[in-house]
Amino acid sequence: MIVIDYKDSRPIYEQIVEKFQKLIVKGVFEADSQMPSVRSLAMELSINPNTIQKAYAELERRGFIYTIKGRGNFVSSGKEYLKYKIGEIQIKFDKLCEEAESVGVKREKIAAYILGKEMSL
Amino acid sequence: MIVIDYKDSRPIYEQIVEKFQKLIVKGVFEADSQMPSVRSLAMELSINPNTIQKAYAELERRGFIYTIKGRGNFVSSGKEYLKYKIGEIQIKFDKLCEEAESVGVKREKIAAYILGKEMSL
DNA sequence: TTAAGTGTGTTAGTTGAAATAGTACACTTA
DNA sequence: TAAGTGTACTATTTCAACTAACACACTTAA
Asked: How far apart are the CA of A5 and the nearest CA of chain B, in angstroms?
């Protein structure tokens, strides 16, 4: 199911995150179904359990899975990740708006630019 | 004028960039006045000329100074850096808007959020 | 209670990209 | 031509990210 590409320069845990993320977004897994345990997947891929752990922690941070200590990792209900992602985007807009204001660009101007009513900031 | 802080974890060239940037923004240097040469400043700070070169290249990229080969580096006219910075911010807004649209957030909604007419995206 | 499963935390080793240095080259001016 | 300037190439160093080893803690079922 999951294959590591050692020609790929990206870290292993990142490859794992991406692959599960795609599968979950596609709806391949049922909500609340159990993920492979960190040990079994590590064994299958011949890598250290900590690397799977790191991937799972990131998937949890992004809202794709949730963890119950001693029981395992489980797939989140489908829309959790969208909520997470929009939250992240909102934070980025907040920071960027502050940055723009610090160089004299007003919010009205930003809004107009985004709506295509102004060609530049 | 410029002092390196070796307790500071940031790289030397970055410290130099920041210090000159602040001085130039403050208007301490006249426009078109000459910067210290890479060699003289390197000598003064007891570091390699390439490190100064790297700092100056970054300052040029940001629009704070300009270079004439064989002659030296010179301070840009005051407003160059603002133009640069606003350009950078514009690019970031473009990317962020695309990202938002990819998860179903419309531009109208973004504009409304930025203007404070909506509490969240 | 115990055994076998699960995740977690701490520490140590590895490795690759970024930072810095050494050196040689090219342009500008007097 | 000499003494100043910036620049390019390569080598070395350093440090943070990644991965691994191992011990600990929780959950469940027999």
From this structure: 27
Do the Cβ atoms of A114 and B113 come within 8 Å? Answer: no
Q: Distance between CA atoms of B4 and B20, rounded to whole angstroms? A: 12
pTM: 0.79
Q: Which residues contact B63 (CB under 8 A, 6 or more apart)?
A: B76, B80, B81, B83, B84, B85
Q: What is the mean pLDDT of each run of 10 residues along chain B (121 residues)?
A: 86 95 90 95 94 96 93 88 88 94 94 96 91
CA neighbor of B20 nearest in space, from B46, B41, B47, B44: B41
Question: Are residues B93 and A96, on separate chains, in Cβ contact within 8 Å?
Answer: yes
Residue of chain B whose Cα is closest to the Cα of A116 = B107
Distances (CA, A) of B67 to B17, B20, B70: 15, 15, 9
Query: Are A93 and B110 spatial neighbours (Cβ–Cβ below 8 Å)?
Result: yes
CA atoms within 13 A on the CB side of B117: 9
d(CA B89, CA A96): 7
Give me the sign of the Cα torsion angle B37, B42, B48, B50. negative
In the 26-45 segment of chain A, residues within 7 Å (Cβ) of strand D are: none
Q: Three-class SS of residue B68?
A: strand
